[in-house]
DNA sequence: TTTTATATGATTGACCCCAATCATATAAAT
DNA sequence: ATTTATATGATTGGGGTCAATCATATAAAA
């Protein structure tokens, strides 16, 4: 029996919220709470997962920013993803001691994950405004972890806004690892005003600023400019120099780290 | 073939760390990464779960602070736990609009979860230093959520320290909901210096301060004093007035909210 | 009103997860 | 050195999970 579209959409929104609330939700539980059959629960799950921020697991579903889910790649035996390769390259730039900053975004989350593979963390401090990165690094023994305060942005699971900017205070970072949504001849762009503004505010605090963007971001135009190439210490990307040149991005060798 | 005890312990520690790092780990993945059979992986999983902070799910395991796992109670049809009842009572004290503060701790996390059951969040702002609370409330549409910055404390998944104190800035809370580790005739105590110091710093920012402690905290002595009864607007607890009196805690009716 | 599209629940077969059991090898105890 | 205890992997039966298929009822379109 067919059901009105708006009812379906409401129920799926409810499902999204339930998963988010509980962190993990078994399928049977979804059926019970939504009052639907397993078949419908699975269909809803598939729809919600397609919209992002939710990952299905055997027997249930998981709110995305709880889980880094590197495993999906590794398990399927696929080649290490572009993001993972970028992350390894980025971690190679992280000094053994000192203070670094990690931005929000899945690419930087991959950096955080790769960083956990190190052995000794004595003397290293990490500052972040990403709850995902904080979650990943929170369990690492010996690492000093700080989170910048700010207003919580739902989509990015990050802390932004004026309070985040002022929380930068007198922090001084030996290196900052930042994400972007697009890159063009002029520099890095981001999709949200809040993010771009925060990144702009952050740059003066960082001795070196590394932007980590995979090749899919090439030529993509997003509205808010985050940084000019002159402000970038190096771009860490899997895109070839040729592909970059085709998008009018020409960087000196010292500013391009190929992953 | 038997294996030395310290090897086993090391491997289980590794498993704990892996789960914590990934948030969620399927059993097959555990086998691969630990290089053991499924049987051993499950045995390790059982051991690690017994030590706490890890919850098993169908097909894998979950880091605890990712998941509130209310469902366990509800599904098994058990009576609502003391924490959940305290949480409901606490939510009843939260105004429809205004600004409130939520502390770290599992009891307050229950408050956050209970709060999500509300319908309309327009005009309500929540400030917290708890990553768990932020995770739970992050997905709630219409709610304005802020996280205080600070140093990340592993055990509490909370942000504390001098930077957290200064992040309080000029915030003014209509109500603050705080947790404690113990209570005695003099007031509330906490186990960590950082936490007690932060709570002391917070109190002047709150018009009303509600402490939420279940009955197991009665008479328990922990080293750091967080608040005197004179600073407490009300105690929300499941302990009976008689039990409180037996521990030399006598509060005027207006200061005691029984859950 | 008639037609079309689709949301739903039931069913089914394949696959996966799990606890229990057992034999074995080897660490710990004596 | 001998005995005991236990960590391990293989196996197995039971049950849970999943995707695909199908009939049906009803919303949406014509």
Radius of gyration of chain A: 20 Å
Give the terminus-to-terminus CA distance of chain A. Answer: 52 Å
Order of helices and strands of chain A: HEHHEEHHEHEHEEEHEEEHEEEHE
* Average residue-wise pLDDT of chain A: 86
Most extensive contact: A-B, 52 and 50 residues
Name the quaternary structure: homodimer
Estimate the global geometry of chain A from the Cα principal axes.
globular
Overview of this structure, please?
Two copies of one chain form a homodimer. With about 260 residues, chain A is an alpha/beta fold. Chain A has ten helices and 15 strands. Chain A has helices at about 5-20, 25-35, 40-50, 70-75, 80-90, 105-115, 130-140, 160-165, 195-200, 240-245; strands spanning about 25, 55, 60-65, 100, 125-130, 145, 150-155, 160, 175-180, 180-185, 185-190, 210, 225-230, 235, 255-259. A seven-stranded parallel sheet of chain A has the order 6-5-4-9-12-14-15, covered by helices on one side. A three-stranded antiparallel sheet of chain A has the order 1-3-2. The first copy, chain A, has a three-stranded antiparallel sheet with strand order 10-11-13. In chain A, a hairpin with a 3-residue loop joins β10 and β11 (about 185-190). Chain A is globular, with a radius of gyration of 20 Å. Chain A starts with a helix and ends with a strand. Chains A and B meet through α1, β1, β3, α4 and α7 of A and α1, β1, α2, β3 and α7 of B. The structure holds a DNA duplex (30 and 30 nucleotides).
């Amino acid at each position: 029996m067919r059901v009105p579209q708006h009812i379906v959409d409401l129920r799926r929104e409810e499902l999204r919220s339930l998963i988010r609330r509980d962190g993990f939700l078994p399928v049977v539980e979804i059926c019970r709470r939504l009052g639907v059959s397993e078949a419908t629960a699975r269909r809803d799950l598939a729809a919600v997962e397609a919209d992002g921020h939710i990952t299905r697991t055997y027997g249930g579903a998981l709110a995305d920013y709880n889980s880094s889910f590197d495993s999906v790649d590794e398990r399927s035996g696929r080649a290490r993803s572009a993001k993972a390769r970028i992350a390894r390259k980025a971690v190679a730039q992280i000094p053994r001691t000192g203070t670094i900053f990690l931005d929000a975004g899945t690419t930087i989350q991959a950096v955080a994950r790769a960083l956990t593979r190190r052995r000794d963390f004595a003397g290293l401090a990490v500052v972040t405004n990403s709850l995902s990165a904080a979650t990943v690094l929170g369990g690492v023994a010996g690492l000093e972890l700080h989170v910048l305060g700010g207003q919580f942005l739902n989509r990015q699971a990050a802390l932004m806004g004026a309070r985040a900017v002022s929380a930068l205070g007198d922090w001084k970072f030996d290196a900052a690892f930042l994400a972007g949504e697009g890159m063009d001849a002029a520099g890095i762009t981001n999709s949200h005003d809040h993010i771009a503004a925060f990144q702009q505010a952050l740059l003066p605090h960082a001795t070196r600023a590394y932007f980590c963007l995979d090749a899919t971001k090439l030529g993509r135009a997003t509205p808010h400019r985050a940084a000019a190439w002159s402000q970038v210490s190096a771009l860490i990307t899997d895109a070839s120099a040729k592909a970059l040149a085709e998008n009018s991005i020409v960087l000196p060798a010292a500013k391009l780290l190929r992953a």
